[in-house]
Write a structure and sequence with these properties.
The chain is of the alpha/beta class. It has a single domain, classed as Alpha-Beta Barrel (TIM Barrel), CATH 3.20.20. The chain is built from 17 helices and 10 strands. The strands form 3 sheets. The chain has a 6-stranded parallel β-sheet. Strand 8, helix 12 and strand 9 form a beta-alpha-beta unit. The longest helix is centred in the C-terminal third of the chain and has 24 residues. The radius of gyration is 21 Å and the shape is globular. The chain starts with a helix and ends with a helix. The N terminus is likely disordered.
Length: 401
């Protein structure tokens, strides 16, 4: 009931603010969250000030409450911006990227190999991104190890499949986190939390930790805790687990034929360990689970994102999609793989942060989400809910930096 009341307040205030577009009604994410509780109106503020004892005894707002209040002051355009992580080519952020970050139209970036030829270049690029965003941008990349490394000059040299136990996973995460912090990266898209053992031909066999669900859980928990201790936000992936799949969702559709009970007994075990270790972001994959949801891929499935992750596991952090340009998304989304439609379906399922990795995706997704939120109050409420989670995360990133 408390959450619904807060969301109702957020949506009501946002409706009044949205007419200003990207202009003066919004504010940069992170700044308000660092400054404490906002005013809820001049009259209430004055009444509180007149009762000194009550004001002194009032509990300080929680980080979540500060984020929700900050989102309530944002225009709809800036709220939608909190939901978008974008990509670009080259070793310098183009003007449209820095302008989007400065105006609150994007929450951060994902880097790929072409963005990262050397430590010095990545350090300069990350610094420019943070300057544009005001110091709280998400700067993310894949650094699993082995061949899956955006930073070829940085550890880990060996992938997760070569890390035999939790001790090795912890050591790998420690050295990797130090390298990421050195170049200004604050979010690593890992560890892989999939259980590949026991599935002949699993496409994750060369990327997942070895062993059964309990062994993988031990390694995942160790890696997540180590990253967090070092000031890096890890993103365990690909919920609810693609270890049982034989086709990479980047290149086509794939199905995992397991029931909810089977997933809970096997694939979800490492995710419980990740959450127990403090993970605040989880990436949802794009495989199909027809015995859980016969209609939608995981990232677009309310049964999986809201039912399994939010309700069953009790996760209230940031849910991030895998790349919305994956072939499995194209195949699953009406409209010839319309990335904007995929983003909207993901938002409705319960995802918070949309990972955009293709050229031209950013303006299409942004405009579609704004238009849908203007048309439909329920979508507007979802935008505000997700934006508050991301604002809270970005405030943490800024403090850790």
């Amino acid at each position: 009931m408390l959450l619904m009341a807060v969301l109702a307040l957020v949506v009501g205030v946002a409706v009044g603010a949205s007419g200003g577009g990207d202009g003066g009604n919004g504010e940069r994410a992170g700044s308000g969250a660092e400054q404490g509780a906002p005013s809820s109106g001049g009259k209430a503020r004055g009444a509180a000030a007149s009762d000194g004892d009550d004001a002194a005894d009032a509990p300080a707002p929680t980080p979540a409450e500060r984020a929700q209040a900050q989102v309530a002051r944002m225009s709809l355009e800036r709220q939608v911006g909190q939901l978008l992580v974008i990509s670009f080519s080259g070793t310098r952020a183009p003007a449209y990227v820095t302008q989007a970050l400065r105006a609150g139209r994007a929450a951060g970036v994902i880097l790929f190999g072409g963005n990262a030829p050397s430590a010095a270049s990545v350090r300069a690029l990350s610094a420019s991104v943070q300057r544009a965003a005001g110091g709280d941008a998400i700067v993310s990349l894949d650094q699993e190890g082995g061949d899956i490394r955006t930073l070829k000059f940085a550890p880990p040299q060996n992938g997760q499949a070569s890390q035999p136990d939790a001790r090795a996973a912890r050591a790998s995460a420690r050295t990797t986190a130090a390298a990421l912090r050195d170049v200004g990266v604050d979010v690593t898209l890992g560890p892989v939390a999939d259980v590949a053992a026991g599935t002949p031909g699993s496409f994750m066999a060369g990327r997942a930790f070895p062993g059964d669900a309990d062994a993988v859980a031990d390694s995942v928990g160790a890696a997540v805790g180590t990253y967090l201790d070092a000031g890096i936000e890890p993103v365990p992936k690909h919920f609810p687990g693609v270890g049982g799949a034989t086709q990479n969702t980047d290149f086509g559709s794939t199905a995992v034929e397991r029931t909810s009970a089977q997933l809970r007994a096997r694939d979800l075990v490492p995710y419980r360990a990740a959450l127990d270790a403090g993970a605040r972001i989880v990436m949802v994959g794009h495989a199909r689970y027809p015995r859980v949801d016969p209609d939608d891929i995981a990232s677009q499935s309310r049964a999986i994102v809201t039912g399994l992750l939010r309700q069953r596991l009790g996760f209230d952090g940031v849910v991030m999609t895998d790349s919305l340009e994956a072939e499995a998304v194209d195949a699953a989304t009406p409209g010839d793989g319309d990335v904007a439609a995929a983003a909207l379906r993901s938002l409705q399922a319960g995802d918070d942060l949309m990972l955009l990795t293709g050229p031209g995706s950013f303006p299409r997704v942004r405009e579609a989400l704004i238009a849908a939120a203007r048309r439909t109050p329920a979508i507007r409420a979802r935008v505000a809910e997700s934006a508050a989670r991301v604002v809270e995360l970005r405030a943490r990133l800024a403090r850790a930096r």
